[in-house]
Amino acid sequence: MRRSKAVSALSLVAGASLLLSACSGGDSGSGNTDQNGSSTDVKAMAVGKAETGDLFKLADTPGYEGTVTIGIDDGYSGYNNQTPDTNSSYNNYVLTAVLSGTLKLDGNNKVLLNNDIFDSWDVTQKDPQQVTYKIKPNIKWSDGQPYDCKDLYLAWLSQSGLAKGPDGKNPFNSASTTGYSLIKTATCKDNLTFVTDYSEPYLDYKGLFNAPAIMPAHVLEAKTGIADITKLAPTGDPAQIKKAGDFWSNEWKGFKADIMPASGPYKITAFDANQKAVTLEKNPQWPGGKGGPSKIVIKAMEDTKAMATALQNGEIDVAASTQPDATAAQTMKGLAAQGVTYGSASQLTYEHLDLNFKRMFADKDLRKAFFESINRKEITDKLLKEVQADAEPLNSVVFFQGEPGYTDLYSSKAGLGAEAAAKTLTDAGWAKGPDGIFAKNGQRASFKITHNQNARRSQTVEIIISQAKAAGIEVKDETDANFLKGGRVSTGDYDVALFGWSSQPFKAESKSIYVCPDKGGEQNYQSLCDPKIDDAYNAAVKATDEQVKVQKYQEADKAIADDYATLPLFQTPSMWAFKGIDRVYMQSYDGVLWNVGEWEQKK
């Protein structure tokens, strides 16, 4: 599922790919750094210490006695990260250490089976497609209850889009049903064997049943009075479906110790919403490696410069930002003498502007003119070069630069200049008013760009305001700290939304962002609806030939661009720095905690 980040806010969905080997990292003071200032040792930290082939296990290391404090850009808000109001990268960055699923991604975005919990995830039949999951025996949640087939069944039931309550509506408020909706039946053959039968081929099946998707079924059963969730079919007793859906959608917010056990190496033990801090301690039931810090405190630090200063002052041990900032990067690079290692890497995340089709951007000519007025190179040059020296505008919303299928679809549409934008509006019947702003039928070309509290986003809007003004378009900056997690972005309460989508390496997950809202576009908050996009995505998702799949995703990509719906700005680089720990790598989708259970104190 794509997740939005305050970089945007896991309203997000999914996305792309990458690669390496292992050794303990030194600091960046040797002078042996890459063009972005990262220690060359950082690349060697992208692979788990016990990773072999396509299997991931946490290495059993000596660990780290004491507390590690980590700064990230925005705060944790919910244990169930699959609902629209919680679906955020920042929840995911915490939950990757707390919940376990089938999938692990290493720092190179390599798709691995979580072999601490699962024995296999095999296609046991090709036509029609069937996938069988085997859970290891004796796996338990932190409260001592079995982690078993029930938990995977609940993940399917809640995200299949098939469940119906008494009113005929689905009470499971899932951010996305992509992939799960193609599973026509899900069956627990026994407590450890889960079988999924598909109505259509789905090559990206490994992206399903990942860690945040798998909630504790035994908790839901106990709190709703449902005796056995696996006996509840989507078309079963509507009253029972409603009980299950209401609990799943509403009760797993924030933190309540009695209903939020862990299945990962750590469990949440405290959450301070006011301080935006969450505390993790080791899960005594974890079956894998027993290393990692004794305690972890994760703090939201929305000011990236303040995060870098906190690292400098010893207030935090790890600074992990998905919000690149030149000043913060300079500060962290300069801390090598304090034993700090700095890293930067491209993420499977793209920063973009979403135009709301239910407001004034129903007018395609206005969308086109706005695109033409924006010089994205000025934005990347001013805001990203210190973090990523070769940063440049992204010209696709489906593919990342360097991937097979990537085509430049936006250089011919964006950055054409003020004169081109003004001509587009004039030709469409817009006229400049005495204030220099175009208007038509009493509507001025004036609107807000809304984003979360983020210095770089404010700087981005400042640049756009100047560019648009030259074209006779008035842009206003609206900062809302809760924009990505307060329901505004997920209900389409904006003119233009500035945020980022973060993804796993599976293209199918982007479908829920761009197909029509009533055709599976649960994360299509801008109300874009184009049959050409729907048809291309539907063909791509069920394609069994790789060339056909890429071609159809390219068709969807082009149709989105031709609608002037979303303007991609750039692929967002991460930046992180740490001290006192042997090796830390910021995984593109899961953040720095993806392998925290094998961190060791640096000797």
From TrEMBL:
<dbReference type="InterPro" id="IPR030678">
    <property type="entry name" value="Peptide/Ni-bd"/>
</dbReference>
<dbReference type="Pfam" id="PF00496">
    <property type="entry name" value="SBP_bac_5"/>
</dbReference>
<feature type="domain" description="Solute-binding protein family 5">
    <location>
        <begin position="116"/>
        <end position="510"/>
    </location>
</feature>
<feature type="signal peptide">
    <location>
        <begin position="1"/>
        <end position="22"/>
    </location>
</feature>
<protein>
    <submittedName>
        <fullName>ABC transporter family substrate-binding protein</fullName>
    </submittedName>
</protein>
<keyword id="KW-0732">Signal</keyword>
<dbReference type="InterPro" id="IPR039424">
    <property type="entry name" value="SBP_5"/>
</dbReference>
<dbReference type="InterPro" id="IPR000914">
    <property type="entry name" value="SBP_5_dom"/>
</dbReference>
